[in-house]
Design a protein that fits this description.
This protein is of the alpha+beta class and about 675 residues long. Among the domains are: about 30 residues, no CATH class; about 120 residues, Ribosomal protein S6/Translation elongation factor EF1B (Alpha-Beta Plaits, 2-Layer Sandwich), CATH 3.30.70; about 100 residues; about 90 residues, Orthogonal Bundle (Arc Repressor Mutant, subunit A), CATH 1.10.10. About 55% of the residues lie in helices and about 10% in strands. The strands form three sheets. The protein has a six-stranded antiparallel sheet with strand order 3-2-1-6-5-4. The longest helix is centred in the N-terminal third of the chain and has 61 residues. The chain starts with a helix and ends with a helix. This is AraC family transcriptional regulator. It comes from Candidatus Ornithocaccomicrobium faecavium. One of its GO terms (molecular function) is sequence-specific DNA binding. InterPro entries: Homeodomain-like_sf, HTH_AraC. Keywords: DNA-binding, Membrane, Transcription, Transcription regulation, Transmembrane, Transmembrane helix.
């Protein structure tokens, strides 16, 4: 065994190498995805931090803009003794913003106020010393760019620093009265950018909307995360695998795997050439008798021959299987006929349009009931009846489990002579020395009407057997059936059960015969099912009981009541669904028509088909308001939107259906806590 060890060891090494390749590929791919996710998370943290810093700057600017203008004017005159204006900024002292310093440029004068240092100087001097503008032309260009800002912006200085500018409006003028500017150095930005970590080949670019404020502008971004203040970070395309350590590890690993693969192949070739031993001999030495043959191919051939001999299916077995399948097909056909007789067979056309299907649409059908007297062999008799058919006439016989009754369904393309079929059946009975009574049903032109033919055959044979039963087809009172169907549609389970119990009690009192009683049960079920389908309520096939299979009344009652309970639950569910649909329509209609002058509860009552009480009930449940409160709230929200676009108070009042401007102002203030003019002024800041 030792001399063959090298061969099998080579195979094992080769298998391990292949598995390690798969494991390495999966692990490296997962590590790659994790590094990208970590880079995205850290980049997002930088964006969130910068957004927070910009929000703080915005809050400082808003605080200064709300101060009285006289405090700014008195700041220089009192030579900074009047520093009351700075007290409002005390809440920001415990938080160091991104900006190292900020200053206020007041356009009414040429002075600027460096607030943290409480000093002032001329703006041109400050621009030269602090903002690195060396020429008058550069300063003039910067000055025009600054006073031309209509909203907050970021300006890049010649020395690479950033200037976050916020216009301030102290009066209702079109241009800003001053600017609050924060000086941000590139070092402070770089500190936050370095938080992302990793070993990136190219620097990260920081954008404010479409302007690059840090790093170099990239042509194509592999990652772009935009913050609330328009800040986004872009990583270059080359940085999709940022950690170089993984790349070095991958290269070394691939080199080792390639070398191992080459050595393994060489060892396998040498072992196969010099020390090869057939596998089947090794199996024999480990624990088993050798297979017959000289080599593996011969052994495989012997094994296959044994398998074929052992599992060969003889012609006799095939015939037995075919006979069993034919028997099952016949049983299935009998069950299908039972369903057709009870009216519960509703197969689609694509399933019944087969050549040998006795219930195929387009045929003519008739049912002949045979009531045998005396003992007889059922299976042989059913087979003999089926053999009476011809090329055009097909007969299917089904035994019903009570009163020795057989139902024969005749099917033909060209019409049926029922009395000719009865003559054939009578001759068969006489040949078998059997006495029988026959009931002939109506000829129908659809498989769905087979129950009508069956009912006529039952009445015919019942008249022969029970001449004193003239009202055999009056199964139940129509008034009771109408009440039952009404209770089912309303989902009233207890009332429906009582009505059904009354109908079944009437059927049992009028029909002592189990045969007629069972057909009456089937008639009740069919009436209920027809009503359900007319109301688009489908019943699962396993719930449709074949009543003729139950020759005990209590079993039939249980199945009928189970079907009744399911139908009531489905109608209740449909009622709940309609109520939800009405609620959704009501809310949508209000949101669509609330800006119409004539919109009122009466219109909503007519359109939605609901009473005023129901409308108020829905609104209190959905929006927790009355109709008037909800309508006023919608109109005030629309008024706020229109005022924000610059529309005047009068125009906004007319747009939201208020003819009186004073009443509109009163309602607006009650809803928002401020007048429309005050609301418009608050939007300017």
């Amino acid at each position: 065994m030792k001399r063959y060890l090298l061969s099998y060891l080579s195979i094992a090494i080769f298998a391990c190498t292949a598995i390690s390749l798969v494991v390495f590929f999966v692990s490296v791919n997962e590590m790659h995805q994790l590094t990208l996710q970590e880079s995205a998370r850290r980049a997002q943290s930088i964006v969130d931090d910068l957004d927070e810093q910009m929000d703080i700057m915005q809050n400082i600017a808003y605080t200064i803009s709300t101060m009285p203008e006289y405090k700014l004017s008195n700041l220089q005159k009192s030579k900074y003794r009047e520093i009351e204006m700075l007290e409002d900024l005390s809440k920001y002292q415990g938080y160091t913003p991104l900006a190292g310093q900020f200053f206020l440029y007041y356009m009414g004068k040429e002075n600027i106020f460096v607030l943290p240092e409480k000093t002032s100087c001329r703006f041109s001097l400050y621009a030269q010393t602090r903002l690195a503008y060396t020429s008058a032309a550069e300063f003039a260009q910067f000055h025009q760019e600054l006073i031309g800002l209509a909203e907050a912006g970021i300006l890049k200085m010649p020395n690479g620093n950033l200037l976050f500018c916020y216009p301030l409006w102290f009066a209702s003028a079109s241009n800003a009265d001053g600017y609050l500017c924060f000086v941000v150095t590139q070092d402070s930005v770089a500190q936050r950018v370095r938080l992302i970590g990793g070993n990136f080949v190219h620097p990260i670019s920081l954008y404010h909307y479409e302007t690059c404020i840090y790093g170099e502008a990239q042509g194509t971004a592999a990652l772009e995360l935009c913050g609330e203040n328009g800040i986004c970070i872009q990583l270059s395309q080359q940085d999709i695998f940022p950690y170089r350590g993984i790349t070095a590890y991958a290269n070394a690993y691939w080199a080792i795997i390639a070398g191992t693969f080459i050595v393994t192949c060489a060892m396998a070739l040498i072992a196969a050439k010099r020390h090869y031993k057939p596998i089947y001999e090794l199996v024999h030495e480990i624990g088993g008798a050798p297979l017959l043959g000289k080599d593996e191919l011969e052994s495989l051939r012997v094994f296959l021959r044994r398998a074929v001999d052992t599992n060969k299916i003889t012609q006799k077995q095939l015939q037995e299987n075919a006979a069993w399948l034919n028997q099952q097909r016949q049983k299935n056909q009998e069950q299908m006929m039972l369903l057709a007789l009870t009216g519960l067979y509703h197969a689609p056309l694509q399933q019944t349009a087969q050549r040998d299907d006795p219930l195929e649409e387009g045929r003519h059908f008739a049912v002949i009931c045979v009531s045998c007297r005396g003992k007889y062999l059922v299976e042989e008799l059913l087979a003999q009846i089926c053999e009476l058919g011809s090329a055009d006439l097909e007969l299917v016989a089904v035994r019903l489990p009570y009163e020795s009754l057989i139902a024969v369904v005749a099917s033909s393309w060209n019409g049926i002579d029922s009395f000719d079929v009865v003559r054939l059946l009578r001759e068969l009975m006489e040949a078998d020395h059997l006495a029988a009574d026959f009931g002939v049903g109506l000829e129908v032109d659809s498989a769905r009407r087979i129950p009508d033919s069956f009912a006529a055959a039952l009445v015919d044979i019942n008249n022969q057997m029970h001449a004193a039963a003239p009202n055999a087809r009056e199964w139940y009172s129509e008034d009771k059936m109408e009440k039952l169907l009404a209770y089912i549609k309303a989902g009233q389970v207890e009332e429906a059960r009582l009505a059904l119990d009354a109908i079944l009690t009437q059927i049992e009192a009028l029909n002592p015969s189990i045969l007629l009683r069972s057909y009456a049960y089937s008639s009740v079920i069919n009436a209920v099912i027809r009503m359900a389908r007319q109301n688009d309520v489908e019943i699962s096939s396993d719930k449709m009981s074949v009543v003729l299979l139950y020759n005990q009344p209590e079993q039939a009652r249980q199945r009928i009541f189970a079907l009744l309970d399911e139908l009531c639950m489905q109608f209740v569910a449909r009622k709940d669904h309609k109520w939800e649909a009405k609620k959704a329509f009501l809310l949508a209609y209000i949101r669509e028509h609330y800006l119409e002058y004539s919109f009122c509860l009466t219109e909503l009552e007519n359109v939605a088909g609901l009473s005023i009480r129901q409308i108020e009930q829905i609104l209190r449940g959905e929006v927790h308001m009355t109709f008037k409160e909800y309508l006023t709230g919608l109109r005030m929200e629309e008024a706020k939107r229109l005022l924000a676009t610059g529309m005047s108070v009068t125009e906004a009042s007319n747009a939201v259906c208020y003819m009186s401007v004073s009443f509109f102002i009163k309602v607006f203030k009650r809803q928002t806590g401020m007048t429309p003019a005050e609301y418009k002024k608050s939007l300017e800041f």
